[in-house]
Amino acid sequence: RLSWPSDGQYLSATNGIFENEPTVPIFERTEFSSDTEIFVEKRKRLTGHKKPLVVSRWNPKLFRDPNDKTLFLHICAVAGNDKTISIWKMPFGTPILVLREISQEPLLDLCWSSDGMMLMVCSYDGKVRWIDLQKHSTLSNKISESEYIEHMKKIRLKWTKSETPKIENINKLETKLQLAIPTKVTTQPTQQTQQTQ
Known about the structure:
It is a single chain. 17% of the residues lie in helices and 35% in strands. The protein is built from three helices and twelve strands. The strands form three sheets. Strands 5, 6, 7, 8 and 9 form a five-stranded antiparallel β-sheet that branches. Strands 1, 2, 3 and 4 form a four-stranded antiparallel β-sheet that branches. The longest helix has 17 residues. The radius of gyration is 23 Å and the shape is globular.
């Protein structure tokens, strides 16, 4: 499953493989372009799990880095068939918490609470578990709503000024699609079919 954080700065995917290890590729919005194909920086792959990863979910809130008050952190939770949840902070790509063997069966899906303080996980054994993260140090520095609004204003201005990928003229695209679709469908049986009948 693909997943975006609330400000759209990253895109995470699952079921990735890097050097024969399951991984979650992370794409930064600043790198989105018509020329972008593969990102090779290690920090953009969340690795460490032993079996395929099926879900990644971004915390709906942003958090202030305790070492740099001007830097906002994005938190991403990852889970899969190894019954393990790992929680990461971006842009550093480092884990802040790993929970192993939390279920008897592979994990299926994740969901954050609206305040970003609790994580819900469901598994193939039919159980749903809540993980309370209110006391975790990284999640104690949540930015305020007013700070979030100002943050969104800044990145929207940045996106407006940056180059965007060129999108093909919609009329030309429609023409190509029309040419690709058969205008006449033959319903008459072929000679071979008639002989068979």
